[in-house]
């Protein structure tokens, strides 16, 4: 069903007019991940093949977006088994980050996608769980080989080096957040 729709929506030769973008959603306000999800929803409606890899969510977490993504044929991958970000083990955090990045590299090098979202990769870079230069080199190399591929990265505190190689950088700026009024994460809004 999803595959059938995908072919219906896909325009012939659309890639010929496509300039792949490297996009970054950063800043301390809410909306970085939901913006990337909205973009995938739009792209899926054009028959584009989308995949999101989430660095910060455990494999056992099931969010609203996971249910919807499935319906739209958007592939989603979350972290390894039983991993939590409160392990207090730097070694474990680094290992998980590297394994997740290896999956990102595999997806970028494959011919199967039009839009890739690496959710919270920027956070992981900010925490130095991954080597920034290595990530930048890989992104540059993939973009040379795949000029039509769109890539979105999310997370706070995007480093200048990443901003420099990106085409579109948006900062979500907090003006007000319900958290400060004691309203915590809600179903359908945060997860
Ligand atoms: P969302 O997934 O809702 O688009 P986000 O990706 O921009 O949010 P993250 O930095 O990934 O935000 O933070 C994850 C969670 O923290 C979200 O549930 C979000 O509502 C919450 N959050 C974001 N900004 C703030 C803030 N300024 N104060 C408190 N909580 C926040
Ligand atoms: Mg997020």
Description:
It is built from seven helices and six strands. The chain has 191 residues and is an alpha/beta fold. The chain has a single domain, classed as P-loop containing nucleotide triphosphate hydrolases (Rossmann fold). The chain has a six-stranded parallel sheet with strand order 3-2-4-5-1-6, with helices on both faces. The model has no long low-confidence stretch (mean pLDDT 91). Adenosine-5'-triphosphate (ATP) binds next to helix 2.
Biggest beta sheet summary: 6 strands, parallel
The CATH homologous superfamily is termed: P-loop containing nucleotide triphosphate hydrolases
Number of spatially distinct domains:
1
Count the E strands.
6
CATH topology: Rossmann fold
Shape from CA axes?
A: globular
Question: Helical stretch count?
Answer: 7
Bound molecules: adenosine-5'-triphosphate, magnesium ion
Q: What is the element string, with H for helices and E for strands? A: HEHEHEHEHHEHE
Distance between the termini: 26 Å
Which bin fits the share of residues in helices?
A: 25-40%
Q: What's the oligomerization state?
A: single chain
Strand content: 5-15%
Low-pLDDT regions: none
Mind telling me the CATH class?
Alpha Beta
CATH architecture classification name? 3-Layer(aba) Sandwich
Strand order of the biggest β-sheet: 3-2-4-5-1-6
Summarize the structure.
With 191 residues, this protein is α/β, with parallel strands linked by helices.
Keywords for this structure?
40% helix; alpha/beta; binds magnesium ion; binds adenosine-5'-triphosphate; six-stranded parallel sheet; Rossmann fold; 191 residues
């Amino acid at each position: 069903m999803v595959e059938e729709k995908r072919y219906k929506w896909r325009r012939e030769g659309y890639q010929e007019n496509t300039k792949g973008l490297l996009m970054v959603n950063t800043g301390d306000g809410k909306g970085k991940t939901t913006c990337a999800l909205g973009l995938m929803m739009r792209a899926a409606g054009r028959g584009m093949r989308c995949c999101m890899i989430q660095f910060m969510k455990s494999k056992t977490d099931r969010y609203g977006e996971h249910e919807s993504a499935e319906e739209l044929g958007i592939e989603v991958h979350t972290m390894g088994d039983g991993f939590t970000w409160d392990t207090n083990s730097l070694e474990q955090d680094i290992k998980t980050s590297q394994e997740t990045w290896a999956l990102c590299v595999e997806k970028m090098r494959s011919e199967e996608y039009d839009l890739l979202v690496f959710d919270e990769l920027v956070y992981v870079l900010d925490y130095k769980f991954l080597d920034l230069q290595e990530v930048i080199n890989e992104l540059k190399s993939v973009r040379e080989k795949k000029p039509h591929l769109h890539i979105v990265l999310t997370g706070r505190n995007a480093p200048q080096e990443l901003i420099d190689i990106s085409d579109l950088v948006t900062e979500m700026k907090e003006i007000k957040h319900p958290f400060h009024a004691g309203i915590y994460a809600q179903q359908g809004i945060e997860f």
